[in-house]
Design a protein that fits this description.
The chain is an alpha/beta fold. The protein has a single domain, classed as TIM Barrel (Alpha-Beta Barrel), CATH 3.20.20. The chain has 15 helices and 17 strands. The protein has helices at 17-20, 33-40, 57-70, 82-85, 95-110, 126-129, 137-154, 168-175, 187-210, 233-255, 261-270, 280-286, 342-354, 385-403, 447-458; strands at 10-14, 75-79, 114-120, 160-165, 216-222, 226-228, 291-295, 300-303, 322-323, 330-332, 337-339, 360-364, 369-370, 408-414, 428-429, 433-436, 442-445. An eight-stranded parallel barrel has the order 1-2-3-4-5-7-12-14, surrounded by four helices. Strands 6-8-9 form a three-stranded mixed beta sheet, covered by helices on one side. Strands 10-11 form a two-stranded antiparallel sheet. A hairpin with a 4-residue loop joins strand 10 (330-332) and strand 11. Helix 7 (137-154) runs parallel beside helix 9. The longest helix is centred in the middle third of the chain and has 24 residues, at 187-210. The model has no long low-confidence stretch (mean pLDDT 97). The structure holds 6-O-phosphono-beta-D-galactopyranose. This is 6-phospho-beta-glucosidase GmuD. One of its GO terms (biological process) is carbohydrate catabolic process. GO terms for molecular function: beta-glucosidase activity.
């Protein structure tokens, strides 16, 4: 074994409720924005396949947990669907949901799989979106109540909690770049949504600590290291601002309890400071995370702006930088994302050097591939050597960061089994296990699933 990882390293994968459970309108579940968006625009991104289809984890969780075991999981990240537990976002708790999540958590533990539980994975209950979603302060209160309900119901067994998955994505998708409901372009609203998500996270952490349960709580952020085109000062400055907008905006308040100064200055200058109530900043300051989940897919390549921005165009972060395509970059042709394995090392090194070496783990990393059926061999197994290579190359960099002292505790792949995506339904497959939608969701372990098991068993490769 050339790359050995420390004892107790977390091997597993991540998934979310809306992308896997199905049963979208069953047993008292309320609607969230995805159920709603699919209903009103089924062909927008979804190819006519909605969150009600998915892999039906709601019904098949027992078999699926066996497959987790078979593919080497010692831990697994799931999310609780807010709109399943509290159908209207606030108010009545749905006992059927309590039963379901209890069953899943107990089943995982019975099979030696540590449950990592995330609270918010893009799934705003529709009733709360109707009052503005994260723009409305009432949603923060409702979220804290929801979080507290989860801690009280499941915290005797769940030892790893996360307040949000990629909270910047609903900001970008919903209020800047049009890939999440309510798909508006409004920088002011985007900032308010970001601020309230961060505040909600800090308040949930505060609520968790008050309960004195024996576990840890963190947040999961998608970090996209910003690389400047050159070392000239204009390019460096462009990369620095892109980093402040897209990484430090959430990383700094989550880990250090404060916002990046450059960003605050821009918001001030441009008249976009959010509404803040007295006491909010102190809550953020005092309730930083115990641990950080890092989702890493791709870097951001940045250069100084070439043309002056149109002053009449809606304000966007891109007023301060341009993106560029690095010549010779490696691409995932299916998802259109650059593959740059060293990025994972740069993130871990940055956390070690500039964020107090906060305890962290890779909470998502993975490769979405279209048309994997053509790689199925005569024994029915998908021969996804490209995925094995993808994971391996990233793990080598994680290993190097570890050797240099990074406080990284595990690696979770996106994802366990092929699932429904927010932006392409079932087109891109990410799983260690394949799902055949034409055969009632039949599951088969891919070659990568077998390989992953051996990595987890040997704690290395
Ligand atoms: C992350 C999300 C996941 C998942 C993944 C793959 O941003 O946390 O929920 O969707 O990306 O992305 P996609 O499904 O868009 O290819």
């Amino acid at each position: 074994i050339k790359y050995r990882f420390p004892d107790g390293f977390w091997w597993g994968s991540a998934a979310s409720g809306p992308q896997t459970e199905g049963a979208a309108a069953v047993d008292g579940k309320g609607k969230n924005i995805w159920d709603h968006w699919y209903e009103i625009e089924p062909n927008r991104f979804f190819d006519g396949v909605g969150p009600d289809k998915t892999s039906q984890f709601y019904y098949k969780y027992k078999d699926d947990i066996l497959l987790m075991k078979e593919s080497g999981h010692n831990s697994f990240r799931m999310s609780i669907q807010w709109s399943r537990l509290i159908p209207e976002g606030r108010g009545k708790v749905n006992q059927k949901a309590v039963e379901f999540y209890n069953n899943v958590i107990n089943e995982m533990i019975a099979h030696g799989i540590e449950p990592f539980v995330n609270l918010f994975h893009f799934d705003m209950p529709l009733k709360l979106q109707e009052i503005g979603g994260w723009i409305n302060r009432e949603t923060v209160d409702a979220y804290v109540k929801y979080a507290q309900t989860c801690f009280e119901l499941f915290g005797d067994r769940v030892k790893f909690w996360f307040t949000h998955n990629e909270p910047i994505v609903p900001v970008e998708g919903g209020y800047l770049y049009d890939f999440h409901y309510p798909n508006e372009v409004d920088f002011g609203k985007a900032v308010q949504v970001a601020f309230h998500s961060i505040l909600a996270s800090a308040k949930a952490i505060q609520a968790y600590r008050k309960l004195k349960q024996d576990g840890k709580i963190g947040i999961i952020l998608n970090l996209t290291p910003s690389y400047p085109r050159s070392q000239n000062s204009a390019d460096l400055q462009a990369a620095k601002l892109a980093d402040a907008f897209f990484n430090r905006s959430f990383l700094d308040p989550s880990v250090k309890g404060e916002f990046p100064r450059e960003l605050i200055q821009i918001l001030k200058d441009e008249g976009f400071l959010p509404k803040i109530m007295s006491g909010d900043l102190a809550i953020i300051k005092e309730n930083t995370v115990d641990l950080l989940g890092v989702n890493y897919y791709q870097p951001r390549r940045v250069k100084a702006k070439e043309n002056l921005p149109n002053p009449n165009a809606p304000f966007m972060p891109e007023r301060f930088f341009d993106h560029y395509e690095m010549p010779g970059r490696k691409m995932n042709p299916h998802r259109g994302w650059e593959i740059y394995e060293k990025g994972i090392y740069d993130i871990l090194t940055n956390l070690r050097e500039n964020y107090g070496n906060i305890e962290c783990f890779i909470s998502e990393n993975g490769m979405g591939v279209e048309g994997e059926e053509k790689f199925r061999d005569q024994n029915g197994m998908i021969q996804d050597d490209y995925r094995i290579e993808f994971i391996q190359e990233h793990l080598k960099w994680v290993h190097k960061a570890l050797e240099e002292g990074a406080n990284v505790k595990g690696y979770h792949l996106w994802t366990f089994m092929d699932n429904w995506s927010w932006s392409n339904a079932y087109k891109n497959r990410y799983g260690l296990v394949s799902v055949n939608l034409n055969k009632d969701g039949e599951r088969t372990i891919k070659k990568s699933g077998q390989w992953f098991k051996s990595v987890s068993e040997h704690n290395g490769f």
